[in-house]
Design brief:
Number of strands: 12
Largest sheet: 8 strands, mixed
CATH class of one domain: Alpha Beta
Shape: globular
Order of helices and strands: EEEHEEHEHHHHEHEHEEHHHHEEHH
Low-confidence stretches: 1-12, 278-287, 341-349, 354-360
Strand content: 15-25%
CATH architecture of one domain: 3-Layer(aba) Sandwich
Length: 360
């Protein structure tokens, strides 16, 4: 059975993480049955999601963010490494009961709400079906009240106005809120939110982000928020992980990562955020080099071909993810050398000077 370990603690006194990835790797064979080529979608990812926090996973398209979500949701099995839920490896879940219990505890909200809503049935049908499947603690006569509760919790109040409607009768924002309501009905521990606001108008995105923070603050639910939008990640997240070409290259508290990024890729992501005061967008640095190689990649940093600070060691040795500042983990030879010398982020200053010259 799945072990509930929220009250257990690690030797350092911190609570056991809800979700933990250890050297999580997923490789896909490409090019046909006889092909020996492999796409490294996720390589040796290590991270935790703790109780009561929102963790943002950011990076450009194709970096492996959604693959991590699908690994955590057990859509894909890992090629290697392991996932632990409340200290229990998912590989130990054998019975159908345990698998259903895990999927209820770690549900997923998709980018396209139509992926999780059946257009042939009403809103009520989708939520009630989930309650019947996953919430055996609720008597059949009490399910409508629970469905109303979760709809109100995500801002669809009064619930009676949407209960009998079909998905096509609702706006995109309402459909996405229903996706969160369906997940909340399972009484989850962690919600995997894969680009949940990217298909919505900018004017209504803030409402969904506020729903996510209320789920954390009022319902005690943790979230993995997958996005390419740094601004929304900064608004909603407690911690951030930056992913590039299948590898996590930087992680830490969101304000520390974005306020003083150590990895050149994170610095370039921050520099690429539109600034109405800037005379010219910083595009030259981002366009430098070739797209990352994720099919049978060799050793070395996968950002090296695009990095303005790359050295020979960057092309021959894969940088480990090290804690270079308290709580900040970075996989970068340049940043590690700067930290070792005790310098005040020499690499960041050098890159800042390059960006300033481009924008001048």
């Amino acid at each position: 059975m799945i072990v509930t370990a929220l009250n257990q603690a690690l030797p350092n006194g911190r609570p056991t993480p809800l979700l933990q990835a250890r050297d999580l790797t997923r490789v896909f064979r490409v090019g046909g049955l006889r092909s020996r080529k492999h796409l490294h979608a996720v390589d040796e990812a290590n991270f935790v999601i703790n109780p009561g926090e929102i963790v943002a996973l950011v990076g450009e398209s194709g970096s492996g963010k959604s693959t991590i979500a699908r690994l955590l949701a057990q859509v894909y099995p890992p090629s290697s490494g392991e996932i632990l839920f409340e200290g229990t490896p998912l590989s130990s879940l054998r019975s159908r009961e345990d698998v259903l219990a895990y999927r209820a505890a770690v549900p997923m909200v998709f980018q396209d709400p139509f992926s999780s809503l059946n257009p042939a049935f009403t809103v009520a049908h989708g939520i009630m079906r989930g309650l019947k499947l996953h919430r055996h603690d609720i008597a059949p006569q009490d399910r409508p009240a629970e469905a109303e509760r979760v709809l109100n919790a995500v801002g669809l109040s009064p619930a009676s106005q949407v209960f009998g409607r079909y998905p096509y009768e609702l706006s995109g924002g309402q459909r996405q809120r229903i996706g969160f309501a369906q997940a909340l009905a399972y009484r989850p521990k962690v919600i995997l939110a894969d680009e949940p606001v990217s298909m919505l108008d900018i004017s209504i995105r803030i409402g969904l982000l506020n729903v996510m923070t209320s789920l954390r603050d009022d319902q005690g639910v943790s979230l993995l928020y997958i996005t390419h939008d740094i601004a929304s990640a900064r608004y909603v997240a407690d911690r951030m992980m930056v992913m590039y070409a299948g590898r996590i290259v930087e992680s830490g508290p969101v304000e520390d990562v974005l306020g003083s990024p150590l990895h050149p890729y994170t610095q370039l992501l921050v520099a690429a955020v539109p600034d109405p005061r800037a005379e010219l967008a910083v595009t030259a640095e981002m366009a430098k080099g070739e797209p990352p190689k994720v099919i049978d990649p060799g050793p070395g940093c996968r950002f090296a071909d695009r990095c303005p600070l790359a050295r020979e060691v960057c092309r021959t040795t894969t940088p480990p993810l090290l804690e270079l500042k308290p709580g900040i983990h970075t996989a970068c030879h340049v940043a590690a050398d700067d930290h070792g010398r005790g310098a005040e982020s020499t690499g960041g200053a050098e890159l800042g000077a390059k960006i300033a010259r481009v924008a001048a």
